[in-house]
Amino acid sequence: MSGPTSPPAAAFRALMARWATGVAVVTTHGAAGDAGLTVNALFSVSLTPPSLQISLTQDADTTPVIKASGSFAVNFLAADQREVSDRFAQTLPSAQKFRDLPLHRGATGAPLLDGTLGAAEFRGVWWTPSYDHVLILGEVVREELGGPGLPLLFFRSGYAEAEGPDRLRLVPPKG
Length: 175
Fold this sequence. Notes:
The chain is of the alpha+beta class. It has a single domain (9-164), classed as Pnp Oxidase, Chain A (Roll), CATH 2.30.110. It contains 4 helices and 13 strands. It has helices spanning 9-16, 62-69, 82-89, 94-98, and strands at residues 21-22, 24-30, 33-39, 42-47, 50-57, 71-76, 103-105, 111-113, 118-130, 133-145, 152-155, 158-164, 167-170. Strands 3-2-6-9-10-5-4 form a 7-stranded antiparallel beta sheet. Strands 1-11-12-13 form a 4-stranded antiparallel beta sheet, with no helix packed on it. A hairpin with a 2-residue loop joins strand 4 and strand 5.
């Protein structure tokens, strides 16, 4: 007796597009320099100790840099940082992703992006492969609050903006 079959990837992608998420950029620093990518697959795990889990594709250029360095940062993007999200979502050389981007260094050496709602640095304490991704659990090393702005949100394959605490405005995708 066989079990249910998985839906096609496109159908699952369409379903998940109906789940509104925040947008963040994961950054790290290793022997080869800085690396980073846009993510929306993350969640807090525990308050004691403060920890968070991210999901990255195993073939992302940032994944092995995090593995080698043992640390990463999560930068929570503000509504006016769509360009930053778009830049880090592209397959570009790391130097190009960070070029002319205002940032400062955290305690782990990870680049922390200026203008975010906040950022936290993590020590990667647990790795587990999951299909074509790897789940990384990190324990907070340091955190900082950014400005009081509104979050950059993602919904139905496009950006959404919070206009206030109880209202979203959908922005049509580019192109």
